[in-house]
Amino acid sequence: MAINIDWEHMTENIVDEELFCPICTDPFEEPVCANKCGHTFCRKCIIKTFRITSQCPTCRHTLTIDDFHPITTRPFLNQLNKILVKCKWCSQSNIQRGDFKDHIKTCTKTIISCPAANINCDWKGQPDQMQGHVEVCPLVKIQPTIVELKTIVKQQSGQIRFLYTIFKKTSEHHKEVCKEAYIKTGLIYCDVCKKQFTINEHKEWLHFCPEADICFNCVKKYFT
Predict the structure, then answer these.
(1) Which chain regions cross the lipid bilayer (predicted)?
(2) Which 3 state secondary structure label does DSSP give 25?
(3) Which end of the chain has the least Cβ crowding within 10 Å, N or C?
């Protein structure tokens, strides 16, 4: 898979060849297994491979990405978690891979992002520099408000799309109903307000009744 930016394997301590991905030749990360042929690869490795080919890299069996499932066998995953790695930031070695997440939380040399990175603060620095940055970063101060506004906009965008879909459906239906009525009678008649229209008064075949925003029959057809 892609080179990990935080750690590197100390592969001299690995003796079991079954723990290596045949694509990247490194120990498995997020291993997945093919249902049909049983071969195992890193999840990211096989996704990248399947952008080019639809064959198993080991046996050339035709597969799809849906033919792979995550390996959840505890003994196998425990072996992977016990592989020793070296932190690229502080150079500490002999860290079990399964414990690396705990190490990186306390590593004083790692590079971290501003808490407001999600609203475009591009600051990066070491953990002991974070507090000083947070105290002066204007984006950190307004982050809660920005996040709340983004949530509101997202919700309202969804509502607008929903209402537009309703309008489109009812408009199309009402257009056909009105068109048929005009062909038969020369007049367009609203069931709700009892008003009649001629073609010149009703160019778009859609009447907004003062008693109801849209035709009652349309609402009944699509929403009951």
Answers:
(1) none
(2) coil
(3) C
Q: How far apart are CA 214 and CA 208, in angstroms?
A: 6
**Of 114, 112, 115, 94, which Cα lies nearest the Cα of 104?**
112
* Residue 176 to residues 165, 172, 190, 205, Cα–Cα distance (Å): 17, 6, 13, 8
108 Cβ contact list (under 8 Å, min separation 6): 90, 126, 127, 128
| b/e map 160-185, b = 16+ CB within 10 Å | eeeeeeeeeebbebbeebbeebbeee
Q: What length is written for the chain?
A: 224
- Alpha helices (H) in 51-137, listed in sequence order: 74-81, 100-106, 127-136
CA distance 8 to 47: 22
Radius of gyration of the chain from its Cα atoms, rounded to whole angstroms: 31
